[in-house]
Amino acid sequence: MAGRRRRRLLLVSNSTLHGGGYLEHVRPPLRRFLGPDVKRILFVPYALRDRDAYAKMARETFESLGYALDSIHESPDPGEAVRKAEAIFIGGGNTFRLLKVLYDNGLIPLIRKRVLEDGIPYVGSSAGTNVATISIHTTNDMPIVYPPSLLALGLVPFNINPHYLDPDVNSTHMGREFSNGT
Amino acid sequence: MAGRRRRRLLLVSNSTLHGGGYLEHVRPPLRRFLGPDVKRILFVPYALRDRDAYAKMARETFESLGYALDSIHESPDPGEAVRKAEAIFIGGGNTFRLLKVLYDNGLIPLIRKRVLEDGIPYVGSSAGTNVATISIHTTNDMPIVYPPSLLALGLVPFNINPHYLDPDVNSTHMGREFSNGT
Prior knowledge:
In chain A, strand 2, helix 2 and strand 3 form a beta-alpha-beta unit. Chain A has helices at residues 27-34, 51-64, 78-84, 95-104, 108-117, 127-130; strands at 9-12, 40-44, 68-71, 88-90, 122-125. By secondary structure, chain A is an alpha/beta fold. Chains A, B: One of its GO terms (molecular function) is serine-type peptidase activity. Chains A, B: One of its GO terms (biological process) is proteolysis.
C-alpha cells in the first residue's frame, strides 16, 4: 500500500464537438495533461458495442498525438493490462454498459488503485467521465444493461452530468428529457 | 389459479399536455375504459417523493370523474390493497424509484395476478406505463435509485418509451438526449 498520490484526472464531457474530429477539441490539453513521460495509453472501449472499430479510431487519434495505444479488449488479461498501464483512457458510449463490463472484469478496484495510489493519469470522456465519479445515478443514458451496482470508480468525490442541457423554455413537449422525476 | 383473462390496460404517455390540467386530455377515454362497474381506484404514487400531495391531486381528478380513490401509501398493507382493488392507476414520476418501491413492497406478482388473471383495469401514465412493460431498459429517467432488477410488470410483451422525441436535426449539441449509446 503506497498511500494516496496526487490524482491526475482529465474528465471531458464529449469526444467530439459539432463539426470536429474525434477528440480534436482536446488535443492540446491532452498533450499537456499526459506530459512527456507517458508513451503508451491503455484504452477502455467497453462503452460501445463495436470495440474493434472504437479502438481503431482511438488508436489513430493517439498515434497522431505521439502516443501508442493498447486497447484493453485485445488483452488476454484485462486486470494485468490495468496493472501495467502508464495511463488510462476510458471512452464514451453507454454508461450502463461500460460500468457493467468494468464490474464483470473485476477492474473497479484495480483502476482505483492505479489512479489513487500509483498516480497514473486517467482520461475520461462522456461515459468514461461518468464512471470516474461516485456513481452513475446522474447519467442521461438508457439502462440498456443492468450493472451489479450504480457505484462507480469514485476517483472524484462528486457526481457529474456531462451532457446537461438547460431546459428549452419554448418547448411545449411535456415529456421529460433530463428529469429526476422528483 | 383462474387462468388468463382478457387484459384491460390504458397506457398513457403523459399525465398532462401543455396548458392542460392533470389527466385532462384523457378524461373521456378514462371514463370509457373504466366503465360503469368500477367505483374505486387504487392509486400508486410511488414514482414521486411527495406521495401525499400526489394522492391529493389524483383524488381530486378521479372524484371529479365520479370515482373514489384510495392511495396505496395510505394503506397499512399495500399487498392487501392490491388484492382488493377494483382498478389500479400507477402515476408518473421517476421510473427507477417507482419500480424499486414495487419490488420493495412485494407488489410485482400481486399486480400481475390482478391484471392478468383477474382482469381488473390497469391505467398507467408515464412511469406507470414504463413499469407495465417487460422492463424499464428504455426509460429516459435518471437512475436515482437502484432497483433489484430492471424487469417490470410484463403486462404487455414489449417495451415502451413514453417520452420519445425525434432528434433535433438542427441541434449542434453533441451530447446525447435519448441515446442507447450503441
